[in-house]
Design goal:
Layout: E1 2-7, E2 13-18, E3 28-30, E4 35-37, E5 51-54, E6 60-64, E7 67-72, E8 75-79, E9 90-95, E10 101-105, E11 110-114, E12 117-121, E13 132-137, E14 143-147, E15 150-154, E16 159-162, E17 173-178, E18 184-188, E19 191-199, E20 205-207, H1 217-220, E21 224-231, E22 248-250, E23 256-259, E24 267-270, E25 285-290, H2 307-318, H3 324-333, E26 352-354, E27 361-366, E28 377-383, E29 397-400, E30 406-415, E31 425-431, H4 439-522, H5 529-561, E32 569-571, H6 573-590, E33 594-599, E34 607-609, H7 611-627, E35 633-643, E36 647-656, H8 678-684, H9 690-700, E37 704-710, E38 714-725, E39 754-758, H10 762-775, E40 780-784, H11 787-796, E41 801-805, H12 813-821, E42 832-836, H13 841-849, E43 854-857, H14 862-873
Parallel strand pairs: 26-31, 33-35, 39-40, 39-41, 41-42, 42-43
Antiparallel strand pairs: 1-2, 2-3, 3-4, 5-6, 6-7, 7-8, 9-10, 10-11, 11-12, 13-14, 14-15, 15-16, 17-18, 18-19, 19-20, 19-21, 22-23, 23-24, 25-27, 27-29, 28-30, 30-31, 32-34, 34-38, 35-36, 36-38, 37-38
């Protein structure tokens, strides 16, 4: 059982018992001479009490597990959940300045009992926790509430909660009490905290009972509470304050009393007036200096010494006398260390000098602080190695190793619990340099350097004389080199002129066909359908040849600028080669050539590489072999040249029985703008870029490309590329310039589509309309001449698809796509396909960022257009 006491304004003491006892007769009140029972046992069976008090009317209040009870003139009035109380288990009571009774409950929050009516506040009203242990009122009439989740302030309208984030030592608050000094005493489960004021955004301090007293919670939100903690964590013997009645209060002398519940500190008397400012700290005391192992503090370099003294000193430090080998080892290890005193408890050598082989040192120190030594913090600095103070720590030692030669000063200071730094202690010491960096060795070095300079001068003079003799021969050689360079420059100019002539021929030839056949088609009334078809086939064939030339020039330009990027995706060598062979086979069959390919069994199913550039290399080499072979065969082979732990080196070759290459021309076949024989250009065509591009692509992948040939018998082009291993079942990825796979039939049936075509070029509009009307039955096409018109049309009508040119006047395709995606409703989700000649990766990312669903590269074929449309429509 716990005895519960309450004192009224007249000094009369109320007595209650917190516990179940059948002999208890309720709550008694001592009137000075005897106890009067004011709460007799009745049918309601109140047998215990949690809190007792008298109000301003002289009525006695007591709480229990059955609610709050008021005793007046021998009559009891009970307040429970039936009258609106939050919970019948009432933990505390408080009478506010307006005469209302406030009750804190166990899980029912805060309740106000006023003239028989009860109002309750809980978590839904802003209370952080509904277990209320204590209630106090400040001078402004605002309530402070102790909960399990922080300290809460109630201004009559709202709750403002303070937690550890605001400076409280812990969120579990057991007691709250308004102190005599105008501050707030807070009892927590770890000790005592005092809220003494507020700081605003400018860090201006306002006392707790100052101008902010009575302010609303909204005003206080802009201030930080000033909280001081008195607990074991801050060096005071204060344990957790209990949560019962009168476990925290202040007497008439301003002394704070706390019931802590600890075995050794059950009641704590705390006199704040007795606190004195901390004295100024004294310098740090150095306890020891060592190199990490015991050192005999005498001059280890002394040749003549007293053997008896040596034995005594060794026994004093090591616990026994050292043997002669041990003593010699110590002298060798600590050579150059000299001390002037011997003191084992405080071994502080003066004028310490360390040999370069013994270049580590340890310091032990202490800051003298008697009140709260466990809170002392240290900071060290080693001048000569680092001129800034180190990290603040509570470790009272510091070690340094691998010190170079030089003068050092060890500094250490400490900070008291009051936050005051002590004067710094300075301890100088020296680390000697090795013998080869001493002053006398530098003198030797200087003499050696002077001798070397003299020898070098003589040698240089001889060299100059010999150079003079060689100079005339060098001038002759350089003159010959200049002549050779001039000839090479003239030859290079001829090569460029030949390339320009070849390029002009290669471009003008298909252009001539395109222009001539186009003019012939304009005279369509002069030709039958078969003739017109042959003209169109000639135009298509010439256009494809012209596109190949343009692509080669662009690839070479990107390589020269270093902007050609290689993909690193899964690549299937067999599958790629099979696709190339199937494409090139008809060209071989036209010339009645035998085209065969062989892939070794040990070639991996899949590697990591660039499928597009791998295909481009094969297409160039196989295409050249077929072009320069009139009869015989073209043989392709792939095998493994070397297999490593993480990669494989593939060896590839293309062998033909063609015209071959002359030996003197073989070294130039991979040069730009060059063909082996000038008459080959007239006979076979070509720009001379294919092999140059192949060589650069192979070398960009870490490989090499070479050629062997015999004139009139054929040539073999061989290349090797290292590839990382990859799982064969991983999906392959197309690169920026890779054309989509074409198919005669789309993946889904397309019919009756309504398409918006945003294109400012009339010729491109005509091409797209013809392709769409031919491929999609029932298609309806609306044309917008620029991006602004396209946005307006897309907002007014429902389209199945929008084909968007990127470069248009007034508003380009990017801005138009973004504007359409910003629509409200389903029209914002209309698929948009970009139509452009720029398909570089950076541009592709830009298309996707604008909200476009796909890309159609120009020029395009009908199959490519239909496949792209089917992909986004599906």
């Amino acid at each position: 059982m716990e005895l519960l006491l309450g004192v009224n304004a007249l000094g009369q003491v109320g007595v209650g018992i917190n516990g179940m006892d059948v002999d208890h007769k309720g709550v008694s009140w001592n009137e000075g001479t005897h106890y009067r029972v004011v709460a007799p046992l009745d049918a309601k069976g109140q047998t215990d009490a949690f809190w007792i008090m008298t109000d301003r009317h002289g009525d006695t209040w007591a709480t229990s597990r059955a609610g709050a009870h008021r005793y007046s003139a021998g009559l009891r009035t009970s307040f429970t959940t039936e009258q609106g109380l939050g919970n019948n288990n009432v933990l505390c009571l408080h009478e506010s300045s307006d005469g209302a009774i406030w009750a804190g409950t166990d899980g029912g929050g805060l309740s106000r009992i006023d003239s028989g009516s009860i109002t309750t506040w809980g978590r839904s009203d802003g209370l952080p926790n509904e277990v209320v242990w204590s209630i106090a009122e400040d001078g402004g009439g605002d309530l402070w509430i102790a909960t399990l989740h922080g300290l809460c302030r109630f201004d009559g309208k709202s709750f403002l909660t303070f937690t550890t984030a605001d400076g409280l030592p812990i969120d579990i608050i057991n007691q709250v009490f308004a102190g005599r000094n105008g501050d707030l005493l807070i009892g927590t489960s770890t000790g005592l905290a005092i809220l003494s004021g507020w700081r605003d955004a400018q860090d201006t301090m306002t006392p707790f009972n100052g101008t902010l007293l009575g302010s609303t919670n909204e005003v206080l939100r802009g201030h930080r509470p000033v909280i001081t903690e008195y607990s074991s964590a801050t060096g005071y013997p204060v344990k957790g304050v209990e949560n019962g009645q009168h476990t925290l209060f202040e007497d008439s002398k301003g002394i704070i009393w706390m019931a802590t519940g600890g075995e050794k500190t059950g009641v704590v008397r705390f006199d704040r007036k007795a606190l004195r400012p901390a004295p100024a700290p004294i310098p740090v005391r150095l306890l020891s200096v060592s190199s990490g192992e015991p050192i005999c503090w005498y001059d280890l370099d002394t040749i003549s010494f007293d053997s008896a003294t040596t034995v005594q000193q060794e026994a004093y430090v090591f616990g026994r006398a050292l043997s002669l080998p041990e003593r010699q080892a110590a002298r060798s290890r600590f050579r150059g260390v000299a001390f002037t005193s011997i003191a084992k408890p405080f071994p502080i050598p003066q004028d310490l000098v360390l040999d370069h082989r013994n270049n580590r040192i340890r310091f032990d120190f202490v800051g003298v602080e008697t009140s709260r030594p466990q809170l002392v913090e240290y900071q060290t600095m080693l001048k000569g190695a680092d001129d800034e103070w180190g990290t603040i720590t509570r470790e009272s030692n510091a070690s340094f190793s691998n010190l170079g030669e030089g003068e050092y000063i060890f500094n250490v200071r400490y900070r008291t619990p009051a936050g005051v730094w002590s004067p710094a202690l300075n301890y100088p010491f020296t680390v000697l340099p090795p013998w080869y960096r001493t002053w006398w060795m530098y003198t030797v070095y200087s003499l050696l350097i002077l001798g070397s300079v003299r020898a070098v001068f003589k040698w240089r003079l001889n060299v100059v004389n010999r150079q003079k003799e060689v100079l005339e021969d060098t001038v002759k050689e350089r003159t010959a080199e200049l002549v050779t360079a001039k000839e090479r420059a003239e030859q290079s100019e001829q090569v460029k002129q030949q390339f320009l002539a070849n390029m002009s021929h290669e471009i003008r030839t298909p252009m001539n066909t395109i222009v001539g056949m186009s003019e012939a088609l304009l005279r369509s009334n002069e030709h039958d359908a078969a003739t017109q078809r042959s003209y169109l086939e000639a135009i298509a064939f010439s256009s494809e040849n012209l596109l190949v030339i343009v692509n080669d020039i662009l690839d070479l330009s990107k390589m020269e600028a270093g902007r050609l990027e290689l993909e690193r995706v899964p690549l299937e060598p067999r599958k790629v080669l099979a696709n190339v062979v199937s494409v090139m086979r008809f060209r071989a069959e036209e010339k009645e050539l035998m085209l065969t390919s062989e892939v070794s069994k040990d070639v991996p199913q899949a590697v990591v590489g660039d499928p597009v550039r791998w295909t481009q290399i094969w297409m160039n080499l196989i295409g050249n072999a077929i072009k320069f072979t009139e009869q015989g065969s073209v043989i392709i082979h792939i095998d493994v040249h070397e297999r490593r732990s993480e990669e494989v080196l593939l060896h590839c070759s293309v062998t033909d029985t063609g015209i071959g290459i002359a030996p003197e021309k073989l070294s130039t076949v991979f040069d730009e703008f060059t063909q082996a024989e000038s008459d080959h250009t007239r006979r076979f065509g070509g720009t001379g870029l294919g092999l140059a591009i192949c060589k650069r692509l192979v070398e960009m992948q870490g490989g090499s490309l070479s050629a062997t040939s015999e004139l009139g018998k054929g040539s073999t082009f061989t290349f090797s590329i290292p590839f990382a291993f990859a799982s064969a079942d991983l999906p392959t990825t197309q690169s920026d310039n890779q054309q989509p796979s074409t198919s005669n039939q789309p993946s889904i049936a397309l019919r009756d589509l309504r398409i918006l075509l945003a294109e400012d070029n009339k010729m491109n509009v005509m091409v797209a309309q013809v392709a769409l009307k031919h491929a999609i039955p029932g298609v309806h096409i609306d044309v917008a001449a620029n991006g602004r018109i396209a946005v307006e049309m897309a907002q007014q009508a429902d389209y199945d698809l929008i084909l968007m040119d990127v470069q248009m006047p007034e508003m380009d395709g990017y801005d138009a796509a973004k504007a359409i995606r910003a629509f409200n409703g389903p029209r914002s989700r209309t698929p948009i396909i970009a139509m452009t000649a720029n398909v570089m990766r950076i541009e592709a990312d830009r298309y996707e960022g604008a909200g476009m669903s796909g890309i159609i590269p120009k020029p395009f074929k009908q199959e490519m257009l239909v496949e792209a449309i089917a992909k986004v429509i599906s």
